[in-house]
Automatic annotation (TrEMBL):
<dbReference type="InterPro" id="IPR003594">
    <property type="entry name" value="HATPase_dom"/>
</dbReference>
<keyword id="KW-0346">Stress response</keyword>
<protein>
    <recommendedName>
        <fullName>Signal transduction histidine-protein kinase/phosphatase MprB</fullName>
        <ecNumber>2.7.13.3</ecNumber>
    </recommendedName>
</protein>
<feature type="transmembrane region" description="Helical">
    <location>
        <begin position="143"/>
        <end position="162"/>
    </location>
</feature>
<keyword id="KW-1003">Cell membrane</keyword>
<keyword id="KW-0460">Magnesium</keyword>
<keyword id="KW-0067">ATP-binding</keyword>
<keyword id="KW-0464">Manganese</keyword>
<dbReference type="InterPro" id="IPR050980">
    <property type="entry name" value="2C_sensor_his_kinase"/>
</dbReference>
<dbReference type="GO" id="GO:0004721">
    <property type="term" value="F:phosphoprotein phosphatase activity"/>
</dbReference>
<feature type="domain" description="HAMP">
    <location>
        <begin position="167"/>
        <end position="219"/>
    </location>
</feature>
<feature type="domain" description="Histidine kinase">
    <location>
        <begin position="227"/>
        <end position="425"/>
    </location>
</feature>
<dbReference type="Pfam" id="PF00512">
    <property type="entry name" value="HisKA"/>
</dbReference>
<dbReference type="Pfam" id="PF00672">
    <property type="entry name" value="HAMP"/>
</dbReference>
<keyword id="KW-0904">Protein phosphatase</keyword>
<keyword id="KW-0902">Two-component regulatory system</keyword>
<keyword id="KW-0418">Kinase</keyword>
């Protein structure tokens, strides 16, 4: 855009200067010619003033002095045919001037100014002043060159000013485009600096407002998804435990399938919402883990499950949003309650690590055993206990989003141990 504006200004300025300077240049040339002719006429008239009063010698002396001072060739044609001064041939213009008419005539080498002097004995005398091409154009080239330099300088100044004005317009527009690309790439913290013309400033304010509104809507969606997750996981876990305690195996299996289907649908919806609303964030892992363990501690007390919690003394920031980390902890603790008998002890330990933080959830249950032909437990939808298989996948994706990883291991007693490595912002 800057280039097009510069070309537009250059073309416009050039047309204006051509329309102005070309006539001005022709006028300068005409003025120089008129000045040279006026000066030559004055010289011829000064010689004509002595034609009738001086003799031939005095007239020749006057012509020579005038020619020497002016640099122009001066010739006096007397009525009898005598010639005084610079020798030149008698041209048709001289013959015309001898009839009593003063005039200016062009010659192959320039021009001649002819002044008719009447009242001279014997007829009419003619005083001729010769002008060369150089006399008629003296100083014109210098003036034209100055006008050309001035025109080029004006074009350059116009282009420079246009470029500065275009830069003041394109720089904020480039910033708007850059922020738009960042927003499209998921950087919802991107904001543009409001600058430029009023219209561009309005666009910048609107884009910042839109980005803020998108962030608010995504945060609200994340909070809603987290709230739904917190509200539904505990009742589903309790319902699963109630179903497992039924005495009729056939009814228990049928209800267990329905509970699995319901949990799979709820988890899928929550996971999809979390995926759509995921954004770069950070939180205090110690605070989030403490809050979620406190939430699950009520159910652990109801089931007589001994629980151990180990947290660092201060804050431990990780590159995961609070809602994502809460859902991850809920998924891991939900697996403990869903896949271990009541009364099974478990522990949660959060410690700093070289890469950020390490979250370990371990229990004393039967451990992680993939079902026959089920493959990797970390594969989405795979489970060794008839569940949805989404819990560990949620934990894995949460760890990878922060730049960490997830590792499955066993405790010394054979129970399951999930190690979550979380990165720092």
């Amino acid at each position: 855009m800057r280039r097009w504006l510069a070309l537009l200004v250059a073309a416009t300025t050039s047309l204006v200067l051509i329309a102005l300077l070309v006539p001005l240049g022709l006028l300068v040339r005409q003025l120089v010619e008129s000045g040279a002719v006026s000066q030559a006429t004055a010289e011829a008239q000064s010689v004509a003033a002595v034609v009738g009063t001086a003799d031939a010698g005095g007239l020749a002396l006057t012509a020579e002095r005038t020619a020497a001072s002016s640099g122009h060739a001066i010739t006096v044609f007397l009525p009898g045919g005598d010639v005084v001064g610079s020798p030149v041939r008698r041209s048709p213009a001289v013959e015309l001037a001898a009839r009593g008419r003063s005039l200016v005539a062009e010659t192959p080498t320039g021009a001649e100014v002819l002044v008719a002097v009447q009242g001279v004995p014997g007829g009419t005398a003619v005083v001729r002043t010769g002008l060369t091409r150089q006399d008629l154009t003296r100083g014109v080239r210098e003036v034209w060159l100055g006008m050309l330099v001035l025109g080029l300088a004006l074009i350059g100044v116009g282009i420079f000013v246009a470029d500065r004005l275009a830069l003041a317009l394109t720089r904020p527009m480039t910033g708007l485009a850059r922020v738009s690309h960042r927003l499209a790439g998921g950087d919802l913290a991107a904001r543009t600096a409001v600058s430029g013309p009023p219209e561009v400033r309005d666009v910048g304010l609107a884009l910042n407002h839109l980005a803020g509104r998108i962030s608010d809507l995504l945060a609200e969606e994340r909070e809603t998804a987290a709230d739904v997750s917190h509200r539904l996981r505990t009742p589903l876990t309790g319902l699963r435990l109630e179903v497992e305690s039924l005495s009729d195996p056939e009814s228990a299996a049928r209800l267990q399938a329905r509970v699995d289907e319901l949990e799979r649908a709820v988890t899928s919806v929550i996971t999809d919402v979390r995926r759509r609303s995921r954004e770069s964030a950070s939180c205090d892992a110690a605070e989030v883990v403490r809050e979620r363990v406190t939430f699950w501690a009520v159910l652990a007390e109801d089931q007589d499950r001994p629980m151990e919690l180990e947290l660092p003394p201060g804050a431990l920031t990780v590159a995961v949003g609070a809602a994502d980390l809460s859902a991850c902890v809920d998924a891991l603790l939900g697996n403990v309650f869903a896949h271990t008998p009541e009364g099974t002890p478990f522990g949660v330990r959060l410690t700093p690590s070289p890469g950020g933080a390490r979250l370990v959830v371990a229990d004393s249950g039967p451990g992680l055993r993939p079902a026959s032909g089920s493959g990797d437990l970390l594969e989405r939808g795979r489970s060794g206990a008839g569940s949805t298989g989404l819990g560990l996948d949620i934990a894995r994706r949460t760890a990878e989003t922060s730049g960490g990883s997830l590792l499955l291991d066993t405790t010394p007693g054979g129970g399951a141990m999930v190690i979550l490595e979380l990165g720092t912002p």
